[in-house]
Amino acid sequence: MDAYARDQTYAVPGAPLAVVLARDLGDVVAAMEWAHVHRVPVVPRGGGSGLAGGATAVDGCLVLSLARMTAIREIAPRDHLAVVEPGVITADLDRAAREHGLMYAPDPSSHEISTIGGNLATNAGGLRCVKYGVTRDSALGLEVVLADGRVIRTGGRTVKGVTGYDLTGLFVGSEGTLGVITAATVRLRPAPAEPPVTVLATFGTLAAAGEAAAAIMGDGLRPSLLELVDRATLRAIDEWRRIDLDPDTAAVIIAQTDGPDCPARELVRRCTDAGAGFAAASTDAAEAAALLDLRRLAYPAAERLGNCLVEDVCVPRSRLPEMIRRIEDVADRRGVRILTVAHAGDGNLHPLFVFDRGLAEPPPHVQAAADEVFTAAIELGGTLTGEHGVGVLKRPWLDAALGAGTRAVHRQIKQALDPSGLMNPGKAI
């Protein structure tokens, strides 16, 4: 059972009473009805790839795995939608959609192992969300089993719909605290007609890289990807893969375009105007993929250095350079190695706090550094999490992020849908 008790964080799980490997809606209903009668807490989970402790077991709970509910029930090409079960792997849905000339847009970094149900539970984002939005933007309707075993269906198959409250939006991002998602109707989009083009630009200062990102978004260009990689991350990649890093490079912008609404030459021009020392576009699909690999090397390069606390703050796009400077200041003062990559088009930063591999959890000075980063994000008008969720790791900062009145409304919603407090207790709110 230990394999089903934890996620990808250092959070120490409790000891579950049992694990249910649900195969269909009936299994989930039976499990929830039993748990309701016997007052046993339930922790739903998908692929276990979460980074906030949201899927970790609590003592005496029933772990309810949806990973075996893997049916793509329907792809409707003319309506640009699919109906899927929660255990479907994100990348598998995208591949199935592309057979019909469509795509499933959300693409978290874990898309080859994460499940649709987990992405819905955390409102996951990904590299393409700068153009296509996060998971909530692709969720049209849900099938949900409530805490007492009742089944409800929210939303539908239409593009528009304002009949009643937006319950679909409520359950997306609720981290399994309000009900168990057993099916979803999701939006598909036309796949790009041409292979994407990748633009790489290097900058001598963070301010210049931030200005380039702000110019791209502020001028109405719509890149399908706009990423920023800081100096610390570039050095870690260079130490590993020898990418011939110019020591004067403070940051890199990696952008991608998949349509005529964002010509690659315009991305290059914005970067050059902002002071890029080098800016160029790929000339073929292989080169485009190779340039994007630089961004994908960030996490494995950090993991080579030790254990990593992977965080996920989000600030207004205009405050992105300032937020990165604040992170660098924290790293210097606290003596912590922090590598930062950012979805620059969204203002969503992922600082990776590296600590000794022999430690089970971050030591106090690393925790203190993370606390300063969270505080800085809130001070700059941002939020604690852009796409990973609150889970257990970020609950201590909820009061500062939400305020007492807003937290009270959260608790009232929780009480209405889960009066016994059985759904993923201790998580998210």
TrEMBL record:
It holds the Pfam family FAD_binding_4. It comes from the Bacteria. Residues 12-191 form the FAD-binding PCMH-type domain. PROSITE patterns: FAD_PCMH. Its cofactor is FAD. The keyword Transmembrane does not apply. Keywords: FAD, Flavoprotein, Oxidoreductase. Signal peptide: none annotated. The keyword Disulfide bond does not apply. One of its GO terms (molecular function) is FAD binding. InterPro entries: FAD-bd_oxidored_4_C (IPR004113), FAD-bd_PCMH (IPR016166), FAD-bd_PCMH-like_sf (IPR036318), FAD-bd_PCMH_sub2 (IPR016169), FAD-linked_Oxase-like_C (IPR016164), FAD-linked_OxidoTrans_Type4 (IPR051914), Oxid_FAD_bind_N (IPR006094), Vanillyl_alc_oxidase_C-sub2 (IPR016171). Belongs to the FAD-binding oxidoreductase/transferase type 4 family. This is FAD-binding protein. It comes from Actinomadura rubrisoli.
